[in-house]
Design goal:
The chain is mainly α. 75% of the residues lie in helices and 0% in strands. Helix 3 runs antiparallel to helix 4, helix 8 packs antiparallel against helix 10 and helix 9 packs antiparallel against helix 11.
Length: 373
Amino acid sequence: MNSTMYNISNTTAADDWAAPVNQNQTAVVYVTAFIMIITFVMNLLVIIIISAYEENRTATDQAIMGLAITDFSLALSFFLIRFIDSHSYSQCAFLLFSSCLLFHLEILNLSLVTLDRYIAITRPFRYQVVFTVSLVRKMIVAAWVYCTPVACALTVSALLRWSPQSRVPCQLLNLVSKVYIYYYITVYCVFFAIVTVAYINIARVVYHHQRRIAAVATPQLSSSQVKVMAKAAKSSFIIVGTSVTCLMLVPINGAYYLAMENAISKAQPQHVPVMLALFNSFLNPILYFWKFKAYRSAFIKLFHLQGCVTACQRNSVHPSNANIIQHEKAVKQRAPNHEPVKNVASEPSSKTPPAELRSLKDLAVSDLHHTNC
């Protein structure tokens, strides 16, 4: 794997073989390949877990699956580009199309995750009615329908300005017009503003709920509900906030190109923004498994690892909990020797004296005799 994925120029294969090998570039290529393999496998696991188990098919899970499909597509495009001829129109077109498509899809899917948490916390009684699984799936399909023609149009307009014989690298910001760069930056700024306002309102609602519950005399049930709400909001904030931070350098790089008088003649490589976007796709599935216990449980169930997990938990018990295990073993040893408890109400007591029983019987016979008379 060479650096042609990020920078396609007019160099030939002979020039590549004649060029000296840079150890730093080789290390970057191997690290990138490792990150993409992990990204491919982890996002595929998330998609399988959400699709295979009924309990993981909520609206929130569907929004996360849309984000996982986008990250999986990014890793898949990294592998597919290796099978396309280098320094050709097809490779440049695939690179431009995938980068434009996946950037827009990432933004829209992150907005969908934010919208899910915003409605769930600010409108909890209407959340199940308004934000359904079918609605989330339709929104994901609508995002793909919108982003695909936009990416096609930008790819065609960029290819009209590039040829394999030119010295301009096949990079999106080098080949598109300044109008698209302004659009590129505007989309991210609007997304950043929406996400910021949404999570500020979410934090405000959670804070007010905690203040109200603090004044209640018995807040056990409500307090647990607010804790679950705050934990879910925190998890989605970490996922969306990490992605926002990693993608921030992309519009900053676009603003840098706009600030230059001649961006095409002074083109700079875009390795850092691309690497951050790849790292974002690598980090997302790790955050899913870290923050959502349901995904960890589904992973254990999928690969039948329950026995291994139980054995590891037994072997890693803290010394302070050793008395609990000893108590459980003692209870299991005494359990077979215990006789079942008799129902006192259904069976007569064997401790009743026989004389008392005879006197009761004589009294009953006497009453019966008087009644007949």
